[in-house]
């Protein structure tokens, strides 16, 4: 087969790009080199559809051998045999549908938060096993690394289950704490602080390697959270923001001054005025 002029021209150009001399200069080198010729026209001619990509239309009523003859796969008589109207998806033959007879009850509270429970007896068990060092502050990072809590969603709440088993003072920071847990920890000389974290903040505290550029911890925004962490009874970290005379509530009020006791002269004068008003009422002419 004699190559065409176009093929020879393309071969000569390719050899020039590869710094290979023409055929006349180095016949041995040129004979060893095989130019990969690819005919795109052949590729286009071989294009075919995938057989499973397209399905033929189902032909019904074409005899029993087709499998869809006679009744065309609809069965004998009835609503399913007729064309046109089809019942609704929740139609149950005419009876009252179950969505009305047995409806869903209750609701999902959008303000509900799921706190992982942490009991004082579990902390003492971890301390006895050497998994937690009570001489160092205990934060969510230590609780997560020691696997004392699993799957922290909205935070950790410290509870007073078997609190008498706790024998060591601890310095712990959690999201919430019960009154019994606070009393037990402070009775042993420990310290407890409740702090607010968002889900992203909890992720940053427990797994800081996921935030190479750092992360700014957000504060509480709802009134319920702000008032909780401003309350000294909850050992909140926002107690310092409450000014003297204020209440943890956002609708704070100043404590009223103690009312001075009335003197004997003032009490006597008030009694006289009262009797005088009674006499005036009795002598009133209607």
TrEMBL record:
TM annotation in the entry: none
SUPFAM superfamilies reported in the protein's UniProt record: Ribosomal proteins L15p and L18e (SSF52080)
Gene Ontology terms describing biological process: translation
Keywords: Ribonucleoprotein, Ribosomal protein
Chain segments carrying region Disordered: 52-93
InterPro entries per record: Ribosomal_uL15, Ribosomal_uL15/eL18, Ribosomal_uL15/eL18_sf, Ribosomal_uL15_bac-type
Origin: domain of life: Eukaryota
A single Gene Ontology CC term: mitochondrial large ribosomal subunit
A Pfam family the protein falls into: Ribosomal_L27A
Large ribosomal subunit protein uL15/eL18 domain mapped to chain residues: 117-193
Family per similarity comment: Belongs to the universal ribosomal protein uL15 family.
Descriptive protein name: Large ribosomal subunit protein uL15/eL18 domain-containing protein
Organism the protein comes from: Dactylellina haptotyla (strain CBS 200.50) (Nematode-trapping fungus)
């Amino acid at each position: 087969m004699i190559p065409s002029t176009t093929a020879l021209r393309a071969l000569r150009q390719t050899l020039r790009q590869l710094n290979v001399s023409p055929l006349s200069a180095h016949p041995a080198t040129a004979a060893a080199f095989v130019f990969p010729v690819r005919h795109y026209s052949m590729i286009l001619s071989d294009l075919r559809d995938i057989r499973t990509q397209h399905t033929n239309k189902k032909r019904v009523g074409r005899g029993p051998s087709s499998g869809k003859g006679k009744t065309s796969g609809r069965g004998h008589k009835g609503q399913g045999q007729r064309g046109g109207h089809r019942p609704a998806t929740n139609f149950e033959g005419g009876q009252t549908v179950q969505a009305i007879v047995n409806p869903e009850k209750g609701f999902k509270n959008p303000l509900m938060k799921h706190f992982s429970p942490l009991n004082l007896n579990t902390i003492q068990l971890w301390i006895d096993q050497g998994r937690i060092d009570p001489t160092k502050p205990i934060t969510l990072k230590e609780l997560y690394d020691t696997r004392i809590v699993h799957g922290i969603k909205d935070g950790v709440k410290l509870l007073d289950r078997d609190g008498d088993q706790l024998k060591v003072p601890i310095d712990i920071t959690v999201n919430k704490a019960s009154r019994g847990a606070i009393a037990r920890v402070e009775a042993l000389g420990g310290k407890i602080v409740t702090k607010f974290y968002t889900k992203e903040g909890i992720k940053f505290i427990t797994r800081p390697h996921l935030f190479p550029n750092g992360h700014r911890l957000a504060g509480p925004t709802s009134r319920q959270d702000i008032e909780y962490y401003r309350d000294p009874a909850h050992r909140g970290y926002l107690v310092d923001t409450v000014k003297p005379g204020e209440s943890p509530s956002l609708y704070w009020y100043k404590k009223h001054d103690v009312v001075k006791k009335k003197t004997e002269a003032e009490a006597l004068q008030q009694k006289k005025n009262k009797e005088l008003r009674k006499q005036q009422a009795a002598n009133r002419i209607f």
